[in-house]
Amino acid sequence: AVRGEPSTSTEVVCLELVRASRISNSDRERTPCASEIIEQAEHHHFPSNLLSTSTLELRLLHASEVIHKMRFSTTTLLISALGWITAVAGHNIQLKAHSRECFHETLHKEDKMTVTFQVGDREFGGSGNLEIDFWVEDPLKNRQYFRQAVSSEDYSFTAHTDGKYVYCFSNEGWTSNSKEVSFNVHGIVYVPEHELAQDPLEAEVRKLSEALAQVKDEQSYIVVRERVHRNTAESTNARVKWWSIFQLAVLIGEGIFQVWWLKRFFEVGVTISKQVKRVV
Fold this sequence. Notes:
With about 280 residues, the protein is an alpha+beta fold. It is built from 4 helices and 8 strands, in the order H-H-H-E-E-E-E-E-E-E-E-H.
């Protein structure tokens, strides 16, 4: 851009309107450019017959649409990123007693997918049994992986055919306590071609969204691990406390019994001595 001349398309349109004497003082507030640009253009004393009115209106309309699309695109990207993060936060489920939860992912052949999960419990005292059953079914409904009585797992596999792969968490046949399962699924995410990032800004926002999702996954996993360890520590502390109270009660009872036994022993001894003296 030349020094003293406007550099953006919107400013050029504003100058062209000024040159054609189509902008009045009352219309300046309705134009997409700043009043300083118009004042700067008025000092150039351009002739008024450079562009037609229709051409200027079309260019001005085009510039306004470009600005509106840029603002709308940025807002849409931010809302989409926040919505995607909210969906990731939904990877914590409450697995009720004697129930199961199943999910599915559509994969293509040779795609790789990883499922990691950690079982926790919000209720104090329920951390004694954090085991569930976990399995993965292929599109033919065959169980390609099954683990029984596990509290955490990290399973990766490669799809051998196209279709829907189902993975399930089961709390059937175990305790009556509900359990919290935090799970993450990592793999290939297919995006339609028309939704691919065409703008560098959109591409960077998508990368930032993915990075935030990974951080959210790690935070969710750490929260569940912290809850499990806290419940275990509190349960151990409660058991130690009650065991100490039991030991104290046994010790006090043993002391009382020994005092009573010794007292009774000496009383019996004195009675026998008196009876012996009477006989003699």
